[in-house]
Amino acid sequence: MKRKAIVASLAAAGLLSLGAWGGIHADALWSQAHAAAPSTQQAPQAARTVVQTLPDFSSIVDANRGAVVNITVTENEKTSAQSEMPDFGNDPFWQFFRHFQVPQPQQGPTHGLGSGFIVSPDGVILTNAHVVDDATDVTVKLSDRREFKAKVLGVDKPTDIAVIKIDAKNLPTVKLGNSSSVRVGQWVLAIGSPYGFENTVTAGIISATSRALPDGTYVPFLQTDAAVNPGNSGGPLFNMNGEVIGINSQIYSQTGGYQGLSFAIPIDVASKVEQQLIAHGKVERGRIGVAIQQVSQGLAQSFGLDKPEGALVSSVEKDGPADKAGMKAGDVILAVNGQKVENSNQLPPLVANVKPGTKATFDVWRNGAKKEVSVVVGELKSSQVASASGGADQNGRLGLAVRPLTKDERDQAQIDGGLLVENVTGPAQQAGIQQGDVILSVNGTPVKSVAQLRALIAKSGKHVALLVQREDAKIFVPVELG
């Protein structure tokens, strides 16, 4: 009886592992304990549950560590993902979402470290766009210490996905999973090179799905509490089946280090981007020309909805795809091609995934009833109309695609002028400007047209202060121009 009591106490305290003591599993110890001292009293079910749910990640690590790579990049500019992030102090309007590649600042060319994983035996690798974008030299180091120069096949900044390739054969690869089936509470495993420590393994759980971040409009991020730090960027996130379900991309941090909030790009999103980058060198995205907002409890009640759900259309672009289809301000979009829209941040990626030129069916709530609206989806343009050159240069000084506000939009925002941000990359994105922001002034000069903005940027120095309105708040944003 004494031995039985000891074993039961250890199990209840969580000291018996799922693996084995000398090759004997925990359940075997239970059986031996009962055999040595039979009793009609049953062991506590809670204790056995604790023993059975402790995970062992060793087999996943053994099967996949060879396919996880370390990436070293060299850039011309003296910049880094963290140093480019402006510090707005304690202003609650700004949240500190950071890319986390390791910067190594020095005079002249700068260097950075990141991670990636092999998806094809002939050397195709997935990583983050911010790891290799603007790099003049990319070196991939395998787990067996071999090093290769890599070619960047394509970069997609809106999703932060990049595809690179090394000249090698018969490489180990990861198995891709299905991120749409991920559930909150499931165990996950991250492998990467935090601070340059190669093949570091950390674990946690899925904290949330479909998270919308300030600079991730088209990505419904997976949130985890797996410890990831600078250098993990671009590395894989595995489920318990040893399948990649995400690419570690960003962390929430006020210090630059891990604080329990990390975000991964779903592998379903990454795979679609990979296919388009390899096939076409770019990614096509759909657009319908609407501005949306979240449906609160009060709005749901006022519209006659049973619960807060969907995306509320706050304005419709004149002569845009949605306008031509008859969509109206005040409509609540509940589904796209049968896929439910539970909250507003789910709508942009759903629309973006629709091939431009094809029809999409939108279930909308209007005047207390459901209605179907068929929209011929347009293409989201990424031209930098506000660049100094006035062309479609992707490396424009500001990196914004903007348009004047319509009269309805100006009335709704209660402003006289301003330019609506339709797409953002480069310096503006690095400074924290987001799609949907309204640019009110440049260095104190109000702006009302794209031409005026272009002229003001052209004669500016290396820095410019933009007055931005986001929802009901206004804030000055300093931007270091390209």
Give a written overview of the molecule:
With 482 residues, the protein is of the alpha+beta class. It has four domains: 2-54, no CATH class; 55-281, Thrombin, subunit H, CATH 2.40.10.120; 286-379, Pdz3 Domain (Roll), CATH 2.30.42.10; 400-480, Pdz3 Domain. It is built from twelve helices and 29 strands. It has a six-stranded antiparallel beta barrel with strand order 1-4-5-8-7-6. It has a six-stranded antiparallel β-barrel with strand order 10-11-12-15-14-13. Strands 17, 18, 19, 20, 21 and 22 form a six-stranded antiparallel sheet that branches. The longest helix is centred in the middle third of the chain and has 14 residues, at 267-280. It is globular, with a radius of gyration of 26 Å. Residues 1-41, 78-98 and 383-395 have low confidence and may be disordered.
Topology diagram in text:
Blueprint: H1 2-12, H2 26-36, H3 45-53, H4 58-64, E1 68-75, E2 97-99, E3 102-104, E4 110-118, E5 124-128, H5 129-132, E6 135-141, E7 147-156, E8 161-166, E9 175-176, E10 187-192, E11 200-211, E12 221-224, E13 236-238, E14 243-252, E15 262-266, H6 267-280, E16 286-287, E17 290-294, H7 297-303, E18 311-316, H8 321-325, E19 332-336, E20 339-340, H9 347-352, E21 359-366, E22 369-376, E23 378-379, E24 400-404, H10 407-413, E25 419-424, H11 426-431, E26 438-442, E27 445-446, H12 450-458, E28 463-470, E29 473-480
Parallel strand pairs: 9-14
Antiparallel strand pairs: 1-4, 1-6, 2-14, 3-4, 4-5, 5-8, 6-7, 7-8, 10-11, 10-13, 11-12, 12-15, 13-14, 14-15, 16-23, 17-18, 18-19, 19-20, 19-21, 21-22, 24-25, 25-26, 26-27, 26-28, 28-29
Helix pairs in contact: 1-2
